[in-house]
Amino acid sequence: MTEARVAIADGRAARDIAPWDHYIAGAFRPSADGGRFETLDPATNEPITSVAAGTATDIDAAVAAARRTFADGDWPQLSPPERASALVRIADAIEDRADDIVALECLDAGVPISQARGQAARAAENFRFFASIARGLTTEALRDGRAFMNYVVRKPIGVTGIITPWNTPFMLETWRVAPALAAGNTVVLKPAEWAPLSANVLAEAIAAAELPHGAFNVVHGIGEVAGAALAAHPDVRLVAFTGETGTGREVMGAGAATLKRHSFELGGKSPVVVFADCDVERAVDAAVFGVFSLNGERCTAGSRLLVERPIYDDFVAAVATRAEQVRIGHPADPRTELGPLIHPAHWERVHAYVREGAREARLVAGGERPGGFDDGNYLQATVFADADRGSRIFQEEIFGPVVTATPFDTDREALDLANDVRYGLAAYVWTNDLRCAHHMAQGIESGLVWVNSHNVRDLRAPFGGVKDSGINHEGGRYSFDFYCDTQTVHVALGDHHIPRFGTGEDQ
Ligand code: NAD
Q: How many whole angstroms separate alpha carbon 422 and alpha carbon 402?
């Protein structure tokens, strides 16, 4: 296979897709041992196609290709403007293939098409954005009187392992691949096995942009096999991982022996703190969109509503009403707001939380498979009121269209509830009281806080979590702190004193 072509026809994504292979050293190829796995259409759970199942042998081949290209210098030794031009060509190629990417995200990941379009556009933007940052990167020169001139340089590090999840897979892959390449590293990507297809379009876009062979490689496969081999490979110098917190722990352990540098974007259980004085209608809009968009499979989902008591009942009722009206449908239907969950095993996991939640809190919307959707992994938009802070639905990441609501009486209680989970990715605060907004923003333990806003990103700002939600923050120039080594060069400007040991002189 050299070109993945798919199409949306009659509101459904076409399904005649060739078997998918790895992309290693500039060519598509099957696994060394011929192993394959099937990827399913979340709307039906029928197999879409088979995908090469990589093992340590395939990871070895990909890492060797990436290492050769790095050592040859064809990519790391380019000037920043030359590399930036190549990244812009990748962005152009992604835009040329946007329809294919959107179709694959609908078909393979179940992302509703209206949302998949935005994600494909953002993927191209990731390459354009990091191209522009790479062009403008500067470092410091530190003059030390007349004695020394010291200067700092950023250097590419080597082979970067990138391991990614299945929610909006293409966009999340580009969020890591673009800065890794912009910095001059070479890459081996291991996409998620539940939504592997769009990664090959990224390989094709990068091939179309004529990067040196081996600069970017894709090895598909099961996390515990291919992912684990990449996470432990001695020639991989740094690992960017996006996924569950527990998997992050394993990835970190696997890299310990060779002291790999890690950047982790992990799980979340983000609070939406709503004060009575806010613009309630906008807060309801943002709360509903924030947890039910991307099928609720969103790391920054506002999955815990903390609402000031005077407006609590009305707020919960408004969210429940809107949840019941969220349009559930096939991901390729432009009217669809909520599509199927990724996999039957994930549906079962999410529904187990819903069943347990119904015993722990008050179910006020959803909770079941919607009528008329007998196949696929559809679940109603689900709202629980009066969730107790000790309950599992309050504490644990569900990663589906499920939100809890809990009342609070004071700022202090709101902060206490917001911080009483092990995660710290995002938080949303709704109030028109300036002092309260800043007080909450400073008190909440999270890497990201939005005030009177849903999740609107500024790519120049660092993105990432604290506590169990991540290590390291990427975005803008901050990404280059991870993807580059900084080297300091100290240059003597004159004859400074050097102690003369072994001369018999007093020093
Ligand atoms: P996951 O941890 O199950 O899998 C992520 C990736 O890791 C996959 O490619 C998988 O194959 C691989 N993997 C699994 N076991 C591995 C191992 N032992 N060694 C190496 N690799 C292994 O996560 P998921 O279910 O694909 O994604 C959902 C999770 O991702 C949620 O927790 C979500 O919050 C998180 N997420 C976080 C962000 C963020 O920016 N913080 C963004 C998106 C998703």
A: 18
Distance 2 CA to ligand 1 centre (A): 28
Catalytic: 299? yes
**Is any atom of ligand 1 closer than 6 Å to the C-beta of 192?**
yes
Q: In 10 A of CB 8, how many CB atoms?
A: 19
| pLDDT value of position 8 | 52
Sheet with 426-430: strands ordered across: 362-365, 382-385, 402-408, 302-308, 270-274, 426-430, 448-451
Mutate to test the pocket of ligand 1, among 244, 270, 293, 396 (most ligand atoms within 8 A of CB): 244
Nearest atom in ligand 1 to the alpha carbon of residue 470 is 41
pLDDT tens, 65-94?
Answer: 999 999 999 999 999 999 999 999 999 999
For the cut 50, the answer to whether the pLDDT of residue 498 exceeds it is yes
Q: Give the residue, out of 188, 230, 299, with the most ligand 1 atoms within 8 A of its beta carbon, to mutate for a pocket test.
A: 299
Q: What pLDDT band is residue 17 in, cutting at 50, 70 and 90? A: confident
SS3 at position 227: helix
Question: Where do we find the tokens 């292979």?
Answer: 21
> What's the pLDDT at 2?
40
- Please name the helix (run of DSSP H) or strand (run of DSSP E) that holds residue 141, with its range, or none: strand 141-144
Q: What is the mean pLDDT of residues 121-150?
A: 96
Residue pair 221/54 in contact (Cβ under 8 Å)? The answer is yes
> Helix (H, G, I), strand (E, B), or coil: what is residue 237?
strand
Residue with the smallest CA separation from ligand 1 atom 37 is 266
**Strands 36-40, 27-29: pairing kind:** unpaired
436 is catalytic: no
- CB of 92 closer than 8 Å to CB of 185: no
Nearest CA to ligand 1 atom 18: 224
Other beta carbons within 10 angstroms of residue 435's beta carbon come to 9
Angle, helices 199-208/98-109, rounded to nearest 10 degrees: 160
Res 1: pLDDT? 40
Nearest CA-CA partner of 111 in 293, 351, 370, 335 = 293
| Nearest protein CA to atom 34 of ligand 1, as residue | 267
What span, in angstroms and rounded, lies between the C-alpha atoms of 240 and 303? 25
Which are the contacts of 424, defined by CB distance < 8 A and separation ≥ 6?
268, 445, 446, 447, 465, 466, 467, 468, 469
> Using CA atoms, how far apart are residues 276 and 433, in angstroms rounded to an integer?
10
